[in-house]
Amino acid sequence: MPVTYVERLAAFIANRNADMLTELVNEKLQACLLFNLSIAFAAPTVDPIRHSLEAVHAMSGNAICWRTGEELSPADAAFRNAALISARGQNDTHAEINGHIGCVAIPAVIALAQSGNATAGDVCAALACAYDVAPLVARSVAIKSGQRGFRGTSLFATFAAAAGAARVLKLNVAQCAAALSIASQFCGGTTQCWAEGTQEWLIQVGNASRAGVVAALLAQGGMRGAINALEGPNGFYRAFVGDIPDWHWDGQAIDEILNVTFKPFPGCAINQLPVKTLIDCKRQMCFGDSDVSRMTLALHPLYARYPGVDRYGPFESATSAIMSAPFMLQTALENDTLTMDDFSQGFGPSSRHDRSRQIDVVSDDALEPFHCWIDIQLRNGSRTRAISGPPSNLAYSLIESRSLTGKIAQEWRIAERDQAHALLLKQVAALCSVEGRRRRIRDVFDMSAFRQIDAG
């Protein structure tokens, strides 16, 4: 009988260890941890909706909620911490899954590592697995599932969380396969919330992270899963994509973590390169917001039509502002950057929304996903076209991530921000070091130093 897709992934997960990681992968893993944790610590003040989300994920245990310091079950800690990372709409991104991996996988792996007292090496191996498994499952199909209305993070990052959770628990091959199969039963989450500006996206990342923990724990407890969960006639691909892809993978690490990009600004991943492209063009051409009479943004057709991207304000919620390319571009045109305040305070009526109507969003079949060009017409009659670089321009190195997170740390609501950021750098480096691999995670990584002042 042929080896199935989940069985192939399971063998890869069960046999992965930290000693196999290349220096490049290890450095990028540090960058991913540093970025995602920094984003979590800079989450906005908790509102009633987020309090409600926390209240229904409050089972006690021995994994830590990063915001409050509460000791929770691994599943509920994973949910809360994943929601914390995603609260700014500023995640790491992988183009192959059309979504985000770190905000889902990192909370799941750390929660189980704390609960089971795993080693730092187990955490590193688990996260390396997570960053490979999601793109493998999503390869060549994420665009199709997106066209059917499914959010890439909700589908494919669930497998990342399950893979990381299975590895940090040191499950055997059969158990890893079961964890992935069970995880497929938790996949879901649509993009309609972006079209209407509603808040379901707040639970999608948390659900995916929690699902990975639950799937791995159930597999550890003996639950079996369908071995044809992905490619079976009634399996994942048939349900969410419509057809079954042929896999061409030799079972070796593909180091997809190296292709992870970071959002330099809060807001939708689709709009990150356009914003950067506009800011770079402004600086090169030396024009200001008052000099611009009209702009046209061109995107890959899937992204030009992605729910919420072409909407104009005023909006009914910050959710819509986070998705809107015209709003994000107009804000960047005026301020040369974007901050959380632009979304939390600027989604309602304002003259900025009127000015954003000078920006059109169009599709261009010749563009690759996440690439763009912007035609800028100035009031003096001149025109220029700014063409984005590749998405890899946002695949920041460890050094670049240190600089970016140093700026983000200024938004942490804790005392002594610079010292806290330096401590985070030190702890992440220790977690990923050769010397630290045999140390228990609780001996290497202490989250209490980063607890928010208003954590109650």
UniProtKB/TrEMBL annotation:
GO molecular function, one term: lyase activity
The MmgE/PrpD N-terminal domain, residue ranges: 7-243
One Pfam family from the record: MmgE_PrpD_N
Domain of life where this protein originates: Bacteria
Family, similarity comment: Belongs to the PrpD family.
Cited PANTHER family: 2-METHYLCITRATE DEHYDRATASE, 2-METHYLCITRATE DEHYDRATASE-RELATED
Protein name, as recorded: 2-methylcitrate dehydratase
Organism: Pandoraea anhela
